[in-house]
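hey so i finally got around to running both of the ones u sent me last week. sorry it took forever, my laptop kept dying halfway thru and i had to restart like 3 times lol. anyway pasting them below in the order u listed, first the sequence line then the structure token line for each. didnt double check formatting much so if smth looks off just lmk and ill redo it

first one:
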Amino acid sequence: MSKESEKYREYIKNFSPKRNRIHEIIFEAETPLGKWFDIILMFLIILSVLVVAIETLPDLSEQVKNVLHVIEWILTIFFTMEYVLRLYCVYRPMKYATSFYGVVDLLSIVPTYLSVFLPHGQSLMMIRALRLLRVFRIFKLAAYTRQGNYLVKAIKDSIPKIIFFLFFILLMVCIFGSIMYLIEGEKNEDFRSIPISIYWAIVTITTVGYGDISPQTGLGQFISSLMMIIGYAIIAVPTGIVTSEMVSGRKDPNEVEDVIAESCMFCMKEGHEADAIHCKYCGELLNPNHENIQEKLNEE
């Protein structure tokens, strides 16, 4: 027997069929049960977000509040059980727990338990809305997911330039804030300190314009107008940086357009071909219940 086949059998031996079945239902959307699980989960997430939002309405009766509170706890218990099952059915639980979706899943259940000790802590459950990102794989919207990946990659590649840009803006608002303090400080109570003047400079150069602080002298108003014009020019810079990275980026020629929602039990990544046996990201085996793997075992 080859080493590869030994690895197949050792893998199946260590992973019970029950865990494999749970993994198929929870992490994959190719099977009917997996698709229904994801759809039901999506509606429960939407329901939980609506419950949290409705609970904050001021004119609710105590009876309605109690009903919403019970629904909130029922949903939280369900999401807690789901989270535990996700940890149970993957080969490396910590890998999932520290992944993006793993962190989001954990943060989506913590606020309800936190509300026992911290009033209004359940309002943080709105983070559950992030779990709706799974809708892209449920409804076969992989193309949109890839477009999102291009944007994320462009932003990551732009980080050094954006950091330099933000550093330059920080220096600019400090300088303009100090100048405005010298010009307006003695004549205008609003500019009574350099930190407050810097706050005004940030509000002005970002074109927010709260209006709570405004210059009164002619020179101060001239500088303020100049900063507003500079602010409009500055807004386009980060967008240009990211756009440039997106245009200069090159699409992977080996990227496969037709992929399935099969999640690797080792690295938790998706985007595999329909006939894939190994994960293209970590090289480990995919679900051993996959028909191609079973065929491989039968050949041996």
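and the second one:
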Amino acid sequence: MILKARKIPIKVGQKYILVLNERTAHMLDVHAGDRLAVQNGSKRITCIVDVTENGEIKDNEAGLYVETWNVLKADHGDKMFVTLAEKPAANMYIRQKLDGKELSRAEIDTIVKDIVTDTLSDVEMTYFVSACYINGLSDRETTDLTKSIVEHGNRIKLNKKIVADKHCIGGVPGNRTTMVVIPIIAAAGITIPKTSSRAITSPSGTADTMEVMCNVTNNAAKLRKILDKVGAFISWGGGVDLAAADDKLIRVRHPMSLDPKGMMLASIMAKKYAVGSTHVLIDIPYGPQVKTQTLEQANALKKDFERLGRMLGMTVKVIATRGDAPIGRGIGPVLEAIDVMDVLANKPSAPQDLRKKAIFMAGELLELCGKSKKGAGAILAEKLLNSGAAYKKMNDIIDAQGRKKMPKVGKFTFKILAEKSGTIVGVDNKLVSHVARVAGAPKNSGAGVTIEKNLGDKVKKGDLLYIIYAENKNRLSNAVEESRAKVYIIK
């Protein structure tokens, strides 16, 4: 069938979508979600069909969103040849996984390729995630998925015997240890490329916090130059497209909080594999309000990470840490950046819990890389911190990535006071994060919360517990309203 091109001036992301009215869709015998092969001159792509009832798209017209319009190099009224397209081969393999079949490397590779090329719809990707959630992934499938994710994205190839990396599986507000550990390790002379994520449900991801001080969107070539110059970077993984399939899978996993173990392992390890990491430290916080709730679960996950590391040819060490309460004082991009730089500058006001955990983690990684003897890593890490070498290295990294003037902390504040005396025996991590997000973090980089009292502290009625920061009065008012629920349990 010949259809006339009509531009819909809306961007919808990378998916190629073609909109038909109901009559034209009926003539073609297609429904929403079906695929059509569309040819305009020499340009030919496969589009996912959407169907409208509003009458804007006329009979024998095809509405094209901006991305589809551009790739087809269309002009208004162009006559395009449209035919029914076959469903992707990946769909058959996804159905097989739903039935409990173990997929081959080639089948997994087909699925990943179709994800990267935007051949699969969000619904189809969600079915793949669901199949992995219901039936799990074997060790071999997890390894194959990791390798496929890497092979269908960019890579940074380093000809070095030791390339270090670290990762935390998340869930603890603050906990910005990465930004302290990386400069310590780099100051010891170890190459450590770090790709980090932006916030999805938290008040700030490492990339969001780093971004208030410097550029974090860098391509692979620039990151390689930064590594050659200063030996480290802390950059947004999505900006370099190192694991494109993983970023798309994370997006469809989020609404239902589906986190299949094998997929989560592949997600984390693919990013390490893509930058050539040889020695990796994984932090698994455990506690009632984080992803891993017990030490037993953390230890089981530890074995999975270490086993996958061996299958990928990496040396992996996993540590289980308590995740009962926020770490650091600031929660929100600017507030967290202040904490990090205070720790690196050895300021007396720096949060000591963040400093202590970062020294411990850096020490473990120094030992793993053979830079210090067993049991002496933390001593070396603290020496590199106290001497100012780590602080200098962090400034070198910031300059190499492109220093920016840090935004100010939100000027509208509200203090939350203790309603009674006693000891803080519990902190609601999720509610702390929620309050910071309602205040505007991470979009409003100066918004968030500062923790003034933490788990185990003794307080008197009227003592300051935490301060909310916002960049406008409405955000502050909403955050204060959310704070009526109890963040702290005082007994």
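quick thing i noticed on the 2nd:
The chain has four domains: 2-84, 89-136, 164-239+269-401, 412-490.
anyway thats it, ttyl
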